[in-house]
Amino acid sequence: MDITGRKLFVKALQEEGVDTIFGYPGGTVTDLFDELYKQDGIHVVLPRHEQGLIHEAEGYAKSTGKVGVCLVTSGPGATNIITGLADAHYDSIPLVCITGQVPLSLIGNDAFQEVDIVGMTRSITKYGVTVRKREELGKILKMAFHIAASGKPGPVLIDIPKDIQTAAGPAEYPSSVQIRGYKLNESVHVGQLKKAYKLLRSAEKPLILAGGGVNIAGAGDKLLQLAEKMQIPVVTTIMGKGAIPTSSPLYVGNSGMHGKYAANMAVSQCDVLFSIGTRFNDRITGDLNEFAPRAKIVHIDVDTASISRNVVVDVPVVADAATALEKLIEWAESKDTRAWQEEIAAWQRENPLEMRRDRGMTPQMIYEHVNRTFGEAIYVTDVGQHQMWATQYLELDDWHRLITSGGLGTMGFGLPAAIGAKIGNPGKEVVCFTGDGGFQMNIQEMATAIVEGAPIIICVFNNYYLGMVRQMQQLFYGKRYAATCLRRRVACPKNCKGPNPSCPPYTPDFMKIAESYGAHGIRVAREEEIQSALDEARGFKDAPTIIEFMIATEEIVLPMVKGGNPMSEMILK
């Protein structure tokens, strides 16, 4: 018996095991929402803006390992999720995003709320299509979930015209699908992997560079086994942090633009760089001509297109991180790397990662208290200085995970992603770290947290500025703080050089914001107040808590490498 497209849509979600969908209604998806209303197994989350919606789906997907599902209307509803699609594309987050579309007969006629969302997003989705035949709807939806979650995960966009939703057609939803031209590499080229292993075995100064692909593959335990078996030090990208416990004696730290001195020096001095699950973007490499200049480079990645795209490597291996590491562990033999580890330790002692403690409360102090407070937690960051401090000072392991926006660096990601993570993990504590700028970009999602009963803890680092850009202005632009002061008003002098006694008050008052949403608010100005604030926030189970940490404007993230410079040329003081 035939059924409508809208019924098949809900049936597909049920068959795929979807328990949560993040949706915002509108004219071209009202039929789909009406069908969702008739069932009880799928929870519909109503955010307050479509950008918040898709970031919530990202946080849900990253924290659960499931596919995040979005549903938005055509036109502005669709265009409002483009930033999130790009974010998910760069960070390999599996999403299936359903957009409504005007009826087939109106496509191309500049109809009300008509946009070519598939064309707009072609470069930032793994697959995108407008459904033009009702009988193809089931197959296309099955393809969407398969493509989003398999291989290198990513976002998929399915555009469903309104008349397809109401048209009758086959009731069957396929159990599997064969996609022409979409072949997954589920094995590893043993010959190439043996070449890589031989380089590791013969190296005097071997170094593992772990990227986000290790975390996506759930291969951290295997990476740790390999590193321990062969006694090879490990550095990570920002997205790779947590691949092995930060407490491991083999873990050096993050490398890159704001990486540890010892980590960047290790990359510069190693003779074999064994990289796995990283794209080698510019934040990791700096000057390509000076990246790992002494090293033979091995690159393992599930995505063929990522290999030798930015850094030409000596041994390419196309494979899933877990598959490759499993085989390497079989071959691994112990190595004596004590001299190399001592050289790295000397760099750690020479320039330790440490902020001054004689000028009041610092971000490092806040993260140290966080590390001591939460026995198990999901940490989510927004983008900016607080994010870099989090990647420097947070301690991660199997019980403490980090979710952040790495490839696109999307301000406004933190709050909604934390809400999505909490919805997907109601029994775990979720802590969001954000700046006063990024927090305001999707601050309306406080309402979503309230109505969803998501008591996340939101740590707002307030330094009155868009801190990361201000830091660049301080170091490289003669302290010309153009458009970065969030207290600035039209009456302020044009060429202000920084905070002074005549500065106007900050807008808004985050404590009053918390009160207006029905959340809890705590303001912290001194180190002695940090622990009690965290303890108090953990006690609130009825609503989110905003902890506003008053951070000195002058605090900057160090080390720092100026864009385009070699990673060995770090600003340390």
Describe the protein.
The structure is a single chain. This protein has about 575 residues and is α/β, with parallel strands linked by helices. The protein contains 23 helices and 20 strands. Strands 3-2-4-5-7-6 form a 6-stranded parallel β-sheet, sandwiched between helices. It has a 6-stranded parallel β-sheet with strand order 11-10-9-12-13-14, sandwiched between helices. It has a 6-stranded parallel β-sheet with strand order 16-15-17-18-20-19, with helices on both faces. The N and C termini lie far apart (about 70 Å). The relative contact order is 0.11.
Shape: globular
Q: Level of helix content?
A: 25-40%
N-to-C CA distance: 72 Å
Query: What is the structural class?
Result: alpha/beta
Low-confidence stretches: none
**For the CA atoms, what is the radius of gyration?**
25 Å
Largest sheet: number of strands, sense, barrel closure = 6 strands, parallel
Mean pLDDT: 96
Strand percentage, roughly?
A: 15-25%
Report the strand count.
20
> How many H/I helical runs?
23
Strand order of the largest sheet: 3-2-4-5-7-6
